[in-house]
Amino acid sequence: MTSESNTRFPELTVAGSPAEMGRQIGEHFRSKIVDLSELVLERFNKGSQAKISWNQAEQVAKRSFDRVGEFFPDPLDELRGTADASGVPVERLMVLNARNMLADTSEGCTSIMVAAESSDSGKGFAGQNWDNDPAMAPLSAVITRKGIGKASFTSWLQPGIVAYMGFSSAGIGICMNALNGPSESSGLPWYFFVRAILEAESTALAIASVNSAPRALTANAAMITNAGPLNLEISPGSVESIEADSSGVLVHTNHCVHPSMTENNEQFPDRIYGQSFARLDRGQEILSTNLNDGKVSIDHAKALLSDHDGFPTSICRHPNDDPNTGWQRSVISIILEPGENRMHVSNGNPCENAYETYNAG
Questions:
Q1: Is residue 61 part of a domain?
Q2: How large is the average pLDDT for residues 36-64?
Q3: In the chain, is it the N or the C terminus that has fewer CB atoms within a 10 Å radius of its CB?
Q4: DSSP assignment of 294-346
Q5: In this structure, is residue 71 part of a structural domain?
Q6: If you average pLDDT over every residue of the chain, what do you get?
Q7: 15 in any annotated domain
Q8: Is 286 exposed, middle or buried (0-12, 13-18, 19+ CB in 10 A)?
């Protein structure tokens, strides 16, 4: 077990206009942003079959500028502020935010959503493991953004990214899963939709923001809201909603489960991250057992996210001999409690590292 000083991610609260928030992020996290901008393509190429150059990556990013400016101008202004303050070209920052548009990659997650009536605290929560590149952990932070006229939100991410897993003052918490399906190069990068969800003043507005803009990828938004769990399987052509049944719990991994989307599992089998079906079944089994014994607690969620059934490609993922993804692991585990304005994050596999609690800044 590492010490608390090494396990807690650095924190920052920013406020003001988008450009002002961007400058505050760029000034505070300048060294991390510089390091990340230099590392991101190398790490992307490690996990991709198709190796690309910086010139190719920046061309993809440049195509996003006009579309992002049309639909999501505020986070684009934030990126410009971050670029000015950090000295990293804004094109490089857009590469960070469009990195999953560069080519097909393999990354995974297991997400859970628990309704208030199924939770022992009486308030809903969501959680996930982020199975990805361990080199990203030292370059990560927890940032609270307090924008003007929008919901404030707290997110774990790499500085320079406009939004990632987190929760908002409107009671929305979002986890996410890579999802197999089509892509559209003229669509907008995924993280801008995450930002729109977290800044929305209501769940209805969050869904509307996803529906109203062209989408580049197929991806999954595993959310807890004031009304309960809500899962959106999002593709360039559709947004499909999955709600919890009478049990009040949901689990999602890295394949499509909505009836209109399951054909992707046959059409894009190579994009399904290891043991996705087994992890889904295992998560549902554990939550069902918890419910049979009473209610689901945060401790139950931590135990689920530390589960090793199917080790090493289990819910709590560890390095293995897979030639493409064996170097990845559960870099963090995160549990969101929007109703309590807090989240819990482990720095490393949750089976080996304690969760630290972060409150809204």
A1: no
A2: 75
A3: N
A4: S-B-HHHHHHHHT--TTTTBSSSB---S-TTTTT-EEEEEEEEEGGGTEEEEE
A5: no
A6: 92
A7: no
A8: buried
**Encoded amino acid at 94, one letter:** M
Separation between Cα atoms, residue 321 and residue 224, nearest integer Å: 35
Domain of residue 184 covers 105-359
Nearest to 221 by CA among 264, 180, 173, 263: 173
Predicted confidence at residue 45, as pLDDT, reads 67
Give the single-character DSSP code of 10.
P
In a domain, 7, yes or no: no
Note the pLDDT of residue 165.
98
* pLDDT of the residue at 3: 35
Residues 6+ apart with CB under 8 A from 206: 172, 196, 197, 200, 223
Q: pLDDT tens digits for 294-329?
A: 999 999 999 999 999 999 999 999 999 887 788 899
Rounded (to 5) percent helix, strand, coil in the chain: 40, 25, 35
Neighbours of 361 (CB within 10 A): 16
